[in-house]
Protein: MFS transporter
Amino acid sequence: MTPGISLRIVATALVPFAIGYLLSYLLRAVNAVVAPDLIADFALTPAEIGLLTSAYLLAFALFQLPLGVLFDRYGPRRVQTALLVLAAGGCVIFALAPGFTTLFLARAVIGLGFAGGLMSGFKASSLWVPLERRALVNACIMSTGALGIIAATEPTAHLVREVGWRYSFLVFAGLIALCAGFIFVVVPRRDGDPVVARFGQQFTQLLRIMRLPLYWRLAPLLGLTTGVQIGIQTLWAGPWFRDVLGFDRMQVARHLLWMAVAFMVGILSSGFAVDRLARRGISPLTVMLAYLLVYLAAQTVIILRLPDLSVAAWVVVAATGQVGIVAFPWFAAQVGNELAGRSNASLNFAMFISAFMVQGAIGVIIGFFLPTTTGYAPEAYSWAIGFFLILQLLALGWYLKPMPEKEIAYGRS
Structure:
């Protein structure tokens, strides 16, 4: 066991939130498998399927800022329990939806209900885990999201094949409700230091964080790199395998499974790397940058559609695209640990607003190209992903500009 973290804390204060995050990623990624059914049943265009899937991300992102205030005020146990109940209701509405509008609204409710999926675990980490071990613990929590992605691949494909997509969402609703009850009963009643500030004051503090020069140095890079990975892995990777490499439904699900495993391995490896290298004086931001350079190179291979390297490139994208989470504890330490919920939410907001735009915009760009007899034009994916690669490179250049000491010092003032 990692020094400073008891088995009891892991079992009762961290694992329940990790399970909630697993379910949030399952529902975030499930449309990559059920999209063909939705397209067939509702005659959805590429733009509509992109908009439908990204409704989750939009509601998720918009609730991040008030969510940070709620976590700091009421603690992760109560807030996450209530949100998961909402997510379960959204799944029921989705299962019964008669058309696109109801599907869109239900998907948004699911996203709202899962808005605290990862941040609840990060807030719990800030309450129960020593600062020097939080990057590792946060990476472990986040790696459980890969189990959600795994569940959203072949297991979900088999479930949908057996009972249909509507009954599958009713199954998801039951699992989410059980998780909500588990968190409410098992997690210790510890919410951190009492918050005496009024809500208005808390939002003022949140806005102050988002005005920091340091925030604007980090947020574009973290938002775009992570947003692209979320946007393409949870929706467009599946159609890419179908349309570019000619895979059938089960082959697509199997390759998405490999990407999910790579996601888990990559997140865990980044956490361990930060944990080990910090003892040698190497910043977590340096580790993050090394991973991101590999990530951007892998996207280039995908854009070029190199047959012999493309599958490996997708695996690398899955393994390295979420490395930005190692910056969360570092950023929280700069602005003050008592603001951890809000500092985490401010970065998560940037990530998911970006993911929403990526997922929807890729659908719009693909729609500009004539479809093939089996799906979408292969070159459409290259143009869409290439556009966002350029934006990521610009964000990287902005991040690498010399950073005056006052930009960091201002965060501690």
Residues 293 and 307 are 22 Å apart (CA to CA). The radius of gyration is 20 Å.
